[in-house]
Amino acid sequence: MYDQKPLLVQSDRTILLDLASKDAEKARLDIIPFAELVKSPEHMHTYTVSALSLWNAISSGIKAEDIVERLNRWSRYEIDKRVLFFIEDTASRYGNFILFADENNKDRLLLKVKKKLFYMQLENSNLAKKMLKKEGDQTFSLSVLDRGKLKVELIKMGFPVDDQIPLKKGEKVDISLKDNFKAREYQEMAVTSLLGNGEKGTGFGTIVLPCGSGKTIVGLVAMSRLQTRTLILCPNVQSVHQWINEIRSKTNLDPSLIGEYSGDVKEIKPITVSTYQILTYRKPGEDEYLHFSLLRDGNWGFIIYDEVHMLPAPVFRITAELQSVYRLGLTATLIREDGREDEVFSLVGPKRFDTPWSELAEQGYIAEAYCHEIRVSLREEDEVKYALAKKREKYRIASTNINKLEVVAYLVKKHSSDSILVIGQYIEQLEDIQKRFKWPIVTGKTSNKARDEIYQKFRDKEIKVLIVSKVANFAIDLPDCSVAIQVSGTFGSRQEEAQRLGRILRPKEKESHFYTIITEFSEEEEFAMNRQKFLSEQGYSYNLERWDVN
Question: What pTM did the predictor assign?
């Protein structure tokens, strides 16, 4: 440790946090509200200041002058004036568009524009023609149903909306945590950051926590504080069942008040758990989403979006109508490969809480994980086929390289006392592995009942090795799994890498290992570098080795 100030604020608005400085932790706590954590390797953590990160902070009550003062306090060098201008200019855009209720007409809202220049810009925009009506005094009116759409469109124009319409209290539901269960400190802090003091501008937002750190518990704590009719949306049926089991085991809620709304069961109860898939279901050739009524007509007081980064476009649209209820998004990474993070900000809510993966690992809340990349060569008979193939087919040939199976066999033998997942993208490849080694397999073709049975046998250690396709990327609770062997992936998806690593991050006594097997000198190397870079940025070291195929 030394006495130099911990921050290096650069002209491109990235901030380096020097962990060797004695004041590193104080500085980190000061910048978290307005800076996004980008990478957290061992010596320097990198943050970035963006328009979204600034609006996140300002929406929670932090002023531009507070942000500048904190940066000046901890910066080792004088801060580039362009950075300070960006902070002040971006912050000045927040609060110019204020949305509030029309006390004389419950079916419409009022939008007040503070600056005349901005009012004139909006007045002459296509947005105004589509959904706004002039009311005088730099004010527009709009339909209640256009509340979310307006927020999305304005943020795309560079103007976040200060939504001052109080959230409605839903029907009361008595739900409390059991006396013998206590949430962790960071889980309680996450909920407090979401709900705040209960006044305007609180009660909606996104919590970012690594896989295995107990995001479900954050949801349960929020439910116990709000005590209202709640809808929980999940990525698959297995996660629906896990939520229901967690609610039953950790709260005092009467089980008869918990409902499942899925392809198999259609129950609507005061606490209902459903999937994104069922909401976006429609009959072939038809435009109508048959189950949107669950969201529209449920009279919910609280909606939880599990794995919010997966929110499909149709649910974005319906969420735009649901701006009057408490909303919580849960995710391990807000990265969306389609770049729609701004819609999550507008419709679900700003990021309210984030913490480095490495920090929770140091505290023992998630497992220490060791990442390994093993490179293998193609068979000679596949080299010509690879050389003549088009780019996408090249990736498939490299991903499904038969030589990878030898490495899989070796790793399973090496970790014979562990619970092991073999994960892949291509079903044909996984079925080849299943035929060769006779291990159980779960893919999209496996029924929900069979999946639940197989996962339970894996938890009970009746199954030591399990082959899974991308259906197991999300929200599968396999607490004792300590080894994951990835034989293929979805191109360079950082999102997928975070989720797959998450399968082995539940805290446990033994160390965890994440192996990725790739074909050397192939298209797969480039995408593997993207994934490797992402995990390195989260603080995980990578061991690289080459496998000799005899």
Answer: 0.79
